[in-house]
Amino acid sequence: MDELAALIDALVYTRSRNEKLRLIAEYLRATSDPDRGWALAALTDGLDFPAVKSSTIRNLLMERIDPVLWTLSRDFVGDTAETASLLWPTPDDPPDPPSVSETVELLAAMNRKSVLSDLPRLLDRLDSSGRYALLKLATGAMRIGISSRLAKVAFAQAFEVPVEEVEEHWHGLSPPYEPLFAWAAHGEAPPDTANLPTFRPFMLAHPLEDTVVDLADYAAEWKWDGIRVQLVRMAGETRLYSRGGDDISATFPELLDVLPMDAVLDGELLVRGSHQGGEVGGAASFNALQQRLGRKTVAKTMLAESPAFVRLYDALIVEGEDLRERPWFERRARLEALMERLPSSHFDLSQVVEAIDFVHLARIREGARDDAIEGLMLKRRDSPYIAGRRVGLWYKWKRDPLLIDCVLMYAQRGSGKRSSFYSDYTFGCWDGDPDAGAELLPVGKAYSGFTDEELKKIDRHVRTHTTNRFGPVRETDRTLVFEVAFDSVHESKRHKSGLAMRFPRIHRIRWDKPPHEADRIEALKALIRD
Amino acid sequence: MARDFAWIRPEPHGIHVVPADSWIDPSRPVDHALVTHGHADHARGGHGVTVATPETLAIMDLRYNTREGATAVPYGETIRLKGGVDATYIPAGHVLGSAQILLEHAGERVVVTGDYKRRPDPTCPPFEVTPCDIFITEATFGLPLFTHPPIAEEMAKLLDRLAAHPERCVLVGAYALGKAQRVIAELRAAGHHEPIYLHGALEKMCRLYEEFGVDLGELGLVSEATKDEMRGRVVVCPPSALNDRWSRRLPEPITAMASGWMRVRQRARQRNVELPLIISDHADWGELTRTVEEVNPRETWITHGREEALLRWHQLHQRKARALALVGYEDEDD
After folding, report:
1. More confident residue, A19 or B294
2. In chain B, at which end, N or C, are there fewer CB atoms within 10 A of the end residue's CB?
3. Closest CA to A23 of B276, B274, B233, B256
4. What are phi and psi of B170, to 5 degrees?
């Protein structure tokens, strides 16, 4: 438990993604089975011990320390598990830390009654860091910023195996993932997951940028502005996975009993929108979809108002036949044939965009007005379905971003490598005629889109044009204009301007432009499309 | 019943010693001030007469040029004030020159601790328990969750990290008066004899400590060192410089902070600290409560900090206590 406690503490204090990967990989290499598997599950919030609740911990502490002192301490720290780890009386005996697997066994064996005597015994065997790790592990709420994706990349790094294969084999296994370690660390055969409703890693695209492709070799499809999903049915059991391989089945229950055959399908999850033209059934904007994301349970009214459907791109497996080695055009034909057997209430097909040549395609892309379109996808017609991002097979060709000129209002220090730089910017537009006393209202925040050299220059500007300080934030004299690029803009009650931008980033720094020539709120409002 | 101790009155901007018309650690200029130690929230400039230990006066001179009206009282000596009040300066173990002030008047004894700690500190003499009727204490770390670990453990953490990254430096944020010098002295005690590099704001205070006989070993200035010279070295700066652009001249600094607040993970994260060092110049919960038991006063008055919890402890132990609502004392960086 000591090593895991040290790892958790190190992760708490590390901001750098690379350093986090290194720490986890090192732990996985240095630790034996099954401890490392349990640790991996704990880090990704994959363990749950129903007998141990936050309230259990609080009650145990209140038996040992004055309730008033407990409450004052809890309020100061802001976290029950951490407060308890700090306040737990240090026993006279030296610590006798259990292994991770012993800890997991003991926790799993506890019930609501036995926890009252068994958990204290466990706490007595640990020091303060160990107690923190134990309580975080027991309540299943590590919350130290380790996504399952990060854990998989760290695993791949630890044993020098491709992350796509880790993703494919990981699913369908449960902690402590011994077959996964046996495969990665000891070169044994990979675990067989063919008949399980597991996630198959996505094929991903490169940005097209300046590449020009021949439409004889590439097919074009719309790139829809929803979330990429994989719908899997194996042996009658259906699951829905997000791009990162997270199981989001519970968020979209309406999709779990509509696939009539065993299959693995790749598509875009969208919600119905009444006012969108273009495609059959029309999709609402990303804003409408966003209301449904991240929910563990879904209200009936929400299911009725914003029902989800999948716009299909590809078929990976159909009725036991793995199509991934087949070229795109064959898979596409299978998918089109499959459509007749799928209910149109929950599925439609992402249409292939027909164009005479690349120039024609570019014109079609320019003319696309449907809000649910993010751009075009170009897929090599003879390409198999290969996990990950392989050069030359798939390209994404996003619609040109929207642009607007804004004035820098506030700057905040970044974190990690950027902690000494003012790198997060809040900018605004005028609420009227700036020469007639109009005010700037904040419309968005961005922290990307500039080079390191530009960052240094903006940082210097912020430091020499500060009018006010609020902790880590500086207010500037509002003299610097940014040309801000963004994907779309929506109404939002959260901001004073009533607007929220999607993916804003700094496009150009207009050192030359006087602030009164920046855009007005109305100009931004005119770009709302939902 | 005539009110006991009517001669000593807590006011919002300091503790008033009425017959002497003198103030302890006043937060605004007064004619006559008794100062416990040199930290800015206790020692301010602009008083008519300032009574303090010679070390504290030297610190105040360095910080505010307060040479006029300075009256030095060495540890253990008593000075007679107006109105028949005797004041004695007793070591508080907080920083160089820090003192508790024992006030005696009409057979009654009052001790004002200022800030204090009970742990050994190579840069100042230890706290002395002084029996009294009223014990006026601080409570900066007055919550039971605060237990400062032995400083040797924290030094080992620092030196381990340094050894693991010989191409980088460890940048330690430490309060400019007291903490910085204590960290350096403790590093020396732990056997670290490499040069230690200082932010410019720490230089004069370190020199002053050396003048008072505290050996800090070989010190260099960041402004005069090259990046390569500082690889594998400890660099010390005030906490405010930790994330400042000043640190860009350092070789990939590992950010550390020496503070009692580092005991709470979220506090360390808020400051972008990678290596929290739990080192405080204040008494932790165990020291605070043990000290009250040892001094065993008739009544405890609590000046600043987390007074609710310490009040509660007094209540649970059938001891009399009250919280004073003094303004202007707090130590976010300690």
Report:
1. B294
2. N
3. B274
4. -105, 120
* Contact with chain A for residue B265, Cβ under 8 A: yes
A470/B contact by beta carbon, under 8 A: no
What tens digit of pLDDT does each residue of A426-440 get? 999 999 988 888 899
Any domain includes A88: no
Query: Does the beta carbon of B3 lie under 8 angstroms from any beta carbon of chain A?
Result: no
In a shared domain, residues A408 and A390: no
Q: Quick one: pLDDT at residue A7? A: 96
Which own/partner contact pairs does B15-19 have at CB distance under 8 Å and 24+ positions apart? Answer: B15/B112, B15/B136, B15/B303, B15/B324, B15/B326, B17/B81, B17/B85, B17/B103, B18/B83, B19/B81, B19/B82, B19/B83, B19/B84, B19/B85, B19/B105
Are the Cβ atoms of A76 and B144 closer than 8 angstroms? no
Nearest CA in chain A to B148: A86
Does B274 contact A14 at a Cβ distance shorter than 8 Å?
Answer: yes
pLDDT in tens, A135-163: 999 988 777 778 778 899 999 999 999 98
Q: How far is B206 from chain A (nearest CA, A)?
A: 26
A419 vs B contacts (CB less than 8 Å): 243, 255, 272
Mean pLDDT of chain B: 93
- For residue A467, what is the domain's CATH number? 2.40.50.140
CB nearest B265 (choices: A68, A73, A82): A82
Rg over CA atoms, chain A: 27
The last residue of one of the domains, among A345, A376, A398, is A398
Write down the pLDDT at residue A168: 83
Q: What is the CATH number of the domain that holds A227?
A: 3.30.470.30
Interface predicted TM-score of the whole assembly (ipTM), two decimals: 0.94
List the domains of chain B with CATH numbers. Answer: 8-145+282-323 (3.60.15.10), 151-277 (3.40.50.12650)
What confidence category does residue A278 fall into, taking pLDDT thresholds of 50, 70 and 90? very low
